[in-house]
Structures are given as structure tokens and as C-alpha cells.
Design a protein that fits this description.
Helix content is 31%, strand content 22%. The chain contains nine helices and ten strands. Strands 1, 2, 5, 6, 7, 8, 9 and 10 form an eight-stranded antiparallel sheet that branches. A two-stranded antiparallel ribbon has the order 3-4. α4 packs across α8, α5 packs antiparallel against α8 and α7 crosses α8. The longest helix has 24 residues. The termini are far apart.
């Protein structure tokens, strides 16, 4: 039987301070023994490295990514939350660069020669999935896509421009209208909590922060604007992404577009375009 959100939610009128309960109950204790190495190895060997979305159309992403002429230091220094963007066309290789450098596979090691990513992950369990709503991307039809880091390709899981539908799920509905593309960071919590228990729930959100900061820095290096969004109605975004909202749910969103005003002092990126 499916469990309804309404049956689980405590609600804002509850006497307990929920963040305090969460923090106290996810503190590491010396009593926590965890799983045995054999249990962990067996479990990890059976884990998918990424959701596959078999049967949906595949869009192969460019593997030869253009070099970024901006140094890491300049990219970090110029990073800002852009609240005024324009949905100009973004090149497919720019999208590929953002996705690969944020959560793409960089090498293989560990249990079963699993792909390690561009971000740290507790136990190399990688509980996150990235979905992309493309509105203005060259060679990509408008719609919702899922990124497979191990194969570096997209699956087209929903057709059509869903900007207005997404906007209705935001506390500020106008934000998605500025976007060329939107990255949804979702989490399959049990990938991490299997090993780390309640503590693993913390690790999932820490990992999302690593991923989103990578997205921000790469966007900065590509002279694109980005805005990290926490003001959204979780259950409505889950419904849009067709997630069950319990063991798989939205946790972070990044809106990406062209900066409405580009300073003449910003270095131009050679070989990137857009």
C-alpha cells in the first residue's frame, strides 16, 4: 500500500522543533556499529550507478569538452547568484561541460570498479541523480532529460517546454522564465543510509552542496548565470519529475541562463561560444 505524504508529515503546528530533532538524531554515536564490510560490498555490487531510463531516447553528449580559459580562482571569485537572466541559447557542449564537471565520472576504483565522480561522496555511494529541463539548448528539443554520468548521455524522459508548469512549483514563479535550462538534483536516500543510517541523510545533502557549487563555478567559467533555488514546493516538483517523494525526492534546483548584463572586465572564454 502506498503511504500518503499527509500521513507522514508532522506539520508546522507541531510543538517539536523539527530541525533540532533531526540534528540530534543524526549525531554520530559510539554505539552505532553499522554494516559489516561484507554486507556493504555485497550491497554496493548490486547498486545501479545511475538510473537507466531504458526505452527513452538517448542523446549522446560531446566527450571532447572545450577547455575553460578562466582560472579556477577567477571562476570562484566571479561566482554570484544571478537574479536577472535571459533564456538565450546554450550550446550542447556547454551543457555537457556543466554536467560532467559537476557529477560526471572521472575515474574508476573501489567496489566493482565503480565510477568515481567529480565530487566527493560518503562511501562512494553517489545517491544523487540529475535531471535537466532544457528550454534553450542547441541540438536539444525542449523537454525534461535525465543525465547518466557513467555513459555521459541524456535520456529524453518528457517532451515539451514545461517552464510554466515548473514555475507554478516555485515560490517565485517568474524565476524559471529566465532560464535556458534548469538542473534538478534529486536523492535516492537509501543508497547512503543503508551504510550510514540516519547520519547518511546528512551526507546526502552535503553531497548536493558539492555538486551545486561545481555547477556554479563551471557556469561562472562559461560566463553563464546561475541561481541556486531552495524556494520550491517539494511535493509538486516530485510529482513533475515523477518521483515517489519518499526514498527518491528533489533536494536542490539550479536555474541557468545568460547574464542580462555582462561586465566588460569579465574575461572572454575562447572556444566555448554561446
Amino acid at each position: 500500500m502506498d503511504v500518503a505524504w499527509e500521513d507522514l508529515g508532522i506539520g508546522s503546528g507541531h510543538d517539536d522543533i523539527l530541525w533540532e530533532l533531526f540534528h540530534e538524531n543524526t549525531k554520530l554515536s559510539r554505539c552505532f556499529s553499522g554494516r559489516s564490510p561484507k554486507e556493504i560490498e555485497k550491497h554496493v555490487e548490486g547498486l545501479q550507478e545511475s538510473l537507466s531510463f531504458d526505452g527513452y531516447p538517448i542523446i549522446t553528449l560531446p566527450r571532447l569538452l572545450p577547455p575553460m580559459a578562466m582560472s579556477v580562482g577567477k571562476a570562484i571569485q566571479s561566482r554570484t547568484s544571478e537574479r536577472e537572466m535571459i533564456p538565450r541559447m546554450v550550446r550542447l557542449k556547454q551543457l555537457a561541460t556543466i554536467l560532467h564537471h559537476s557529477y560526471g565520472v572521472t575515474r574508476r576504483a573501489g567496489y566493482g570498479d565503480r565510477g568515481l565522480r567529480a565530487t566527493p561522496s560518503a562511501g562512494a555511494l553517489f545517491p544523487l541523480e540529475l535531471f535537466v529541463h532544457a528550454r534553450c539548448v542547441h541540438d536539444l528539443a525542449p523537454g525534461l532529460y535525465h543525465y547518466n554520468p557513467t555513459k555521459h548521455h541524456l535520456r529524453h524522459v518528457r517532451k515539451g517546454d514545461c517552464t510554466e508548469e515548473i514555475g507554478n512549483c516555485f515560490t517565485e514563479p517568474a524565476i524559471p522564465r529566465q532560464a535556458s535550462l534548469i538542473v534538478f538534483v534529486t536523492a535516492l536516500f537509501e543508497r547512503t543510509t543503508f551504510k550510514y543510517g540516519d547520519r547518511g541523510y546528512r551526507f546526502v545533502f552535503l553531497e548536493a552542496g558539492h555538486v551545486v557549487q561545481n555547477i556554479n563555478i563551471v557556469c561562472s567559467a562559461l560566463r553563464l548565470g546561475s541561481l541556486n533555488v531552495g524556494g520550491f514546493f517539494d511535493r509538486e516538483i516530485d510529482k513533475f519529475l515523477r518521483l515517489n517523494g519518499l526514498n527518491h525526492s528533489i533536494i536542490y534546483i539550479v536555474v541557468i541562463g545568460s547574464k542580462s548584463k555582462v561586465s566588460s572586465k569579465e574575461p572572454r572564454i575562447l572556444g566555448i561560444g554561446g
